[in-house]
Amino acid sequence: SLMEVQVRKGGTVGRALLQRGQRDALQVRLDRDLPVQRARLDLVFLVDATGSMADEIDKLKRSMRSMADQIARLPSRPDTCFALVAYRDRGDAFFVRAHDFGKDLDAFQRSLGALQAGGGGDYPEALNEALHTAVHRLSWRGDGATRLVVLVADAPPHLDYGAPYYDDDMQGALARGIKLFAVGASGLDPTGEYVFRQAAQYTGGRFVFLTYAKADDPSSGPGRETAHDVGNYSVESLDRLVVRLVREELARRPAG
Hints:
The protein has 256 residues and is α/β, with parallel strands linked by helices. 30% of the residues lie in helices and 27% in strands. It is built from six helices and ten strands; from the N terminus they run βββαββααβαβαβββα. It has a six-stranded mixed sheet, sandwiched between helices. A two-stranded antiparallel ribbon has the order 1-2.
């Protein structure tokens, strides 16, 4: 008589027939084409919403749908949740405003679309408080999710407001597996560049920067020039930059 033997591993099934008295051992080959395991991605946009950031906020609004579509088509087909943390400074219409994680891209885009640049006044802004909100006040998913924060800003944090401080929260981000990718915009000064580089390096992220037609004039429009002391850099659109950073991080995930 014949007996069907089934072997299961990782959701894959192999089958073979065993005939009584034929042999003592049976070799079963599993299908090598294992199903692709979807990555889980928690992606936060941490945005300076003061008056000097109008062009950058408009770029985000125009490119967000394209970014989301490109991310969805990556090889790991990520299951993505988006969040938004916007900030200004004391005395402005708002201090820190958050849209918590969700999979509804339309709802996220409505929150982003309602964001307008305004206020500010002095140069430093409420980045300390906004980073604290991003790290500790959002509904990050559990272990196994890739956790990324994309900061788009043109000014350093106020260091004279007292706690929270960005260095404490970059340590908190590292402990939670959150990587910070800091995008310097609109002529970020050396203090801001130091803070952005420090937080990105400490959390395992990267510091990148926007370029303009004239290095020292963000209002000059898109271009390839920067006032930062760097060389041999490549230039990409903001949406392609974010997608590339996400793609590189998802590729670091352990197999399986």
